[in-house]
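Take one protein record:
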Amino acid sequence: MQGSVTLEIKNNIGTIEFFHPQSNSLPSEILNKLASTISQAGTNDEIKVVIIKSKGDRAFCAGASFDELSSIDNFRVGKKFFMGFANVINACRKCPKLIICRVQGKAVGGGVGMACAGDYCFATKYASVKLSELAVGIGPFVVGPAVEKKSSVSAYSTLSINATKWFTASWAREKGIYSEVYDTNEEMDQEINKLADNLTNSNPEAMKKLKEAIWSNTNHWDELLEKRAEYSGQLVLSDFTKNAIARFKSK
C-alpha cells in the first residue's frame, strides 16, 4: 500500500494516523484501512478516546485520489470507491468512543467529511476547507450528511456550490465544522492532549451514551450514504467528469 494507516495506544488514548505522499489523499486502500482501524479502536477496551490525525504540516487531507478516480471505468468500481468514504464516516459514527480530529492544514472533500465525522475537531489557522467535487463534475454527496450535521444546510450548500473557493479556518469555526482553532500545531496539540487526558478519566458508559445522543437520528446513514455513493459512482463515468479530472491532474 502506498501510504499508511497506524494505530498507537498510549495512556488509554488510541491515535490513528494516516499518510499518503500526495498531500494525504485517500485512495481505496487508505480508506478501507481507516474504516477498519476506527472500528478496531472502537472495540478495544484499552482505548477510552480516539484521535484521528494525518502526517505532515500544512495538508490534512487532499480528498479523493485523482489517480484512482481517473481509472474508474464502470459503475461497480465507481460505487465501491465512493463507498470507501461512506465506510469511514459510518465507522466514526458507530464507534462507541469519542473521536477527536486534528486538522493541521488544508482539508478537501473527503477530508472535510472526516473532520465533520469526528465528535470534536481541533484545527490550526492554516486549515482552510474546500468541497471541490462539483468542480470535477461529481458533487460532495457522500460527505454531505456529515458536513450538514456538523454545521448546517447553509454551510454545506455554500461549500458545495462555490467549489473552487478555499474557506478559512475561522469560517469553518464559525460554522461549527471546527471546535477550536489555534495559531500553531504546538498550541493545538497541547489542547488536544489536555482534552484527551481529561476524557480518559471520564465515565466510559457516560461517554458512550453521549456519543449515541450526538449521533441520534443517523441510523439510516448506512442506506443513505450507499445511495450517495451510487450518485458519485455514476457521475464519475461521464465524459464531463473524466475531462475535468484530466485537467486537474495536468495542473
Remarks:
- The chain is about 50% helix and 20% strand.
